[in-house]
Amino acid sequence: MTEEDFILPDGVDARRLPKVLLHDHLDGGLRPNTIVELAEEIDFELPESDPELLAKWFRDSADSGSLPSYLATFSVTVGVMQTAQALRRIAREAVVDLAADGVIYAELRWAPEQHLGRGLTLGEAVDAVAEGIAQGIADVEATGGWIRAQQILCAMRQAHRSDEIAELVVERYDSHLVPGGVCGFDLAGPEAGFPAADHAAAFDYCAEEFVPVTVHAGEADGLDSIESAVLDARALRLGHGIRIADDIELHDEDADGTFAQLGDLAEWVKNRRIALEIAPTSNLQTGGVPSLAAHPFNLLYELGFAVTVNTDNRLMSSTTASLELARLANEFDYDLDDLEEFQFAACEAAFLPVEDRDRLADRVADGFDEARI
């Protein structure tokens, strides 16, 4: 990436803008040099030992057009994330890197069940990430910056531990106001063939305990996946969710300006403000869309859906929150008002108390006002 990649159509550097990030995988955002160093400590074999070549390997391997192939790269990152020391370091570095990119709030998601290979318990793994996030926040504040970050715990949909992870989320949810605390539950992993309905008990428990839920749905599978996420999981947000466009029928513009007919599911997602955690570059890599120009992001935005802009996996997609904004702005000719709306939508959907969401929106507004000067 070059400096020009960050420049918006109006000449503003996207890194100057305050950003709210709802969908960023902890195990998808490691620094390549950190992977190399951690691998050496535990004698873990890497496909490349040079950090630059390793970064290229991740990029090339993820750019496959297949979600299962994309997910296969995580065997490397997860492989070096099996100790408390490694989890603390990676979480701290993630917070520092996000803050350097202008992110002021991030919900970092990860699946604790995948990090028990060297003796950690689920609770110890979560504690280590919380400590790393807190350290990262302190590092940012020490240099005059500001960021807030929380954890979302994922259950893997192809596994059988969702009830246990839901219990862990509920147990730790009272920490969601503490830096690095757990703020929600997610279902991740291969989407096709693993509907949210298979994990109904976990979602019922979260609902009974008033814990917010987001679900990966509508990325590699269609409307049935989204419907299951909405009805069976009571999801407040959809991870990606771009296949909701399949429930929208376009036609010639009517006299009143209407150009689309929404199906019942699309109407529900739109009208209930179920936020779409969209990660454009990742959607291209996993084959969700053939090109950025063909991405339904702009259509969904024009129709009034709660669209948010996310990174998904910064390492695999070789991206940042600023790059995602710049790519969208240059493709669809968005101005600062549009980009600000995406941040407001993310503030509205954040798994925070309403007062905190309002304060976060105020920070966004102040930062965009400064960028307009």
Describe this structure in words.
Residues 18-366 form the Adenosine deaminase domain. Belongs to the metallo-dependent hydrolases superfamily. Adenosine and AMP deaminases family. Its EC number is 3.5.4.4. The structure is a single chain. This protein is of the alpha/beta class and 373 residues long. The protein has 15 helices and 10 strands. The chain has a single domain, classed as Alpha-Beta Barrel (TIM Barrel). Strand 4 (182-188), helix 8 and strand 5 form a beta-alpha-beta unit. It is globular and about 65 Å long. The protein starts with 18 loop residues before the first strand and ends with a helix.
Number of strands: 10
CATH architecture: Alpha-Beta Barrel
Give the CA-CA distance, first to last residue: 26 Å
**Radius of gyration from CA coordinates:** 19 Å
| CATH homology superfamily name | Metal-dependent hydrolases
How are the strands of the largest sheet arranged? Answer: 1-2-3-4-5-6-9-10
Helix content: 40-55%
Number of domains: 1
Order of helices and strands: EHHHHHEHEHEHEHEEEHEHHEHHH
What is the CATH topology descriptor?
A: TIM Barrel
Unreliable sequence segments: none
Report the biggest beta sheet as strand number plus sense, adding barrel if it closes: 8 strands, parallel
In percent, how much strand structure appears in the residues?
5-15%
Shape descriptor: globular
Query: How many alpha or pi helices?
Result: 15
Averaged pLDDT: 95
State the CATH class. Answer: Alpha Beta
Q: Structural class, please?
A: alpha/beta
Protein name: adenosine deaminase
Cofactor: Zn(2+)
InterPro entries: A_deaminase_dom, Ado/ade_deaminase, Metal_Hydrolase
EC number: 3.5.4.4
